[in-house]
Every structure is written in structure tokens, then in C-alpha cells.
Amino acid sequence: MNIKTFIRKIIHKYLYHVDGARAARFLGVKIGNQCRLIHCTFSSEPYLVEIGNHVSATRTHFETHDGGIWVFREQHPDWDKIAPIKIGNNVYIGEGCIILPGVHIGNNVIVGARSVVTKNIPDNSVVVGSPARVLKSIDEYFDKVQHSVYPTKQLSSSQKKEYYSQLFLQK
């Protein structure tokens, strides 16, 4: 490993823990505004990943190549199966998901935790599973959750603790 590669690895490791979106940009991922990437990883072609605006992902792996080609390596030593990944705007990707090569996730999409996304996901969808399948529309999800949310997003940690303690812990 040359010194330039070594320094890049150190910088990436630091950024990975401090600012995931910045670390991904450092690797060559195209990322929009207001993105939150927490402990996400990218395969050997991060420059083939494009992430839109207002995307949140935690411990998600973006895989741009199909390693299954390995079994054909002796007959076809120079084969690669590689395809870009594109994530739209306003997307939430739950913890531990895997996004496979060639996938396009549309706008306004929720991907449930631990899902494996093998095919394109249309706009305004909620998907879950392995392989990920459309469960409902974003409007159906909104109708379901709107009656069970709390106005605490802008509160401090101590204010949230007080609010939820009064709500759930008082008898």
C-alpha cells in the first residue's frame, strides 16, 4: 500500500465516525443535501452510487457488483458484473439494509430494517423483506402512523425524557 492510499484510509476512517455523508463523498459517492448516513459501507465502486436529497440510512451496505461471478472465474477470468445504484429524494433506509447492483429506489420511499433490495422500488412506497417487496404506499403509512406520533422532535434530551416519563411511566 502506498502512502497516498494509507492517508486516504486514515481520513476515511475518521470521517466515517464523524460525518458519514462526508466520508461517502470522500470515497466518490454522489450525495445530495441534508443526508444522514450512519456507519454505511460501499463496495469497490462507490463512484457508481448516487444518493438524492434528504436521505437517511444506518448501517446500510451499497453493493455495486455481483460477486457470484466468482464461480465462473476459471472459464471467464475477466468477467465483472457491475451496475450503478441510485437513491431518490426523501428516502429512509432502515438499519442493516443491503442495496444490490442496478437498483433504483424512487422518491418518498421507506425501506424497512434488514431489507435486501434486489429490484427497483417505485416512488411513494414502503418496502420490507428479503427480497424487499412493496408493503403499502407512503400515504397508507401516513394514515397508519399519524395517530401515534408525538411532538418531541425539536425537544432537548431532558425535555423528551420528562415528556415520555409523564406519558408512559406515571400510573
Automatic annotation (TrEMBL):
Q: Which UniProt keywords apply?
A: Acyltransferase, Transferase
Enzyme class comes to transferase
In its keyword annotation, does this UniProt entry include Acyltransferase? yes
From the UniProt record, list the coiled-coil ranges.
none
Classification via SUPFAM superfamilies:
Trimeric LpxA-like enzymes
EC number(s) given by UniProt: 2.3.1.79
Q: What InterPro entries does this protein's entry cite?
A: Hexapep, Hexapeptide_acetyltransf, Trimer_LpxA-like_sf
Pfam families listed in its UniProt record? Hexapep
Question: Could you confirm whether the keyword Ribosomal protein appears in this record?
Answer: no
Matches recorded under CDD domains: LbH_MAT_like (cd04647)
* Domain of life assignment: Bacteria
A GO MF term: maltose O-acetyltransferase activity
Q: What protein family does this chain belong to?
A: Belongs to the transferase hexapeptide repeat family.
Under which name does UniProt file this protein? Acyltransferase
- What is the source species? Bacteroides stercoris
Q: What is the lineage of its organism?
A: Bacteria, Pseudomonadati, Bacteroidota, Bacteroidia, Bacteroidales
Q: Which gene encodes it?
A: maa_2
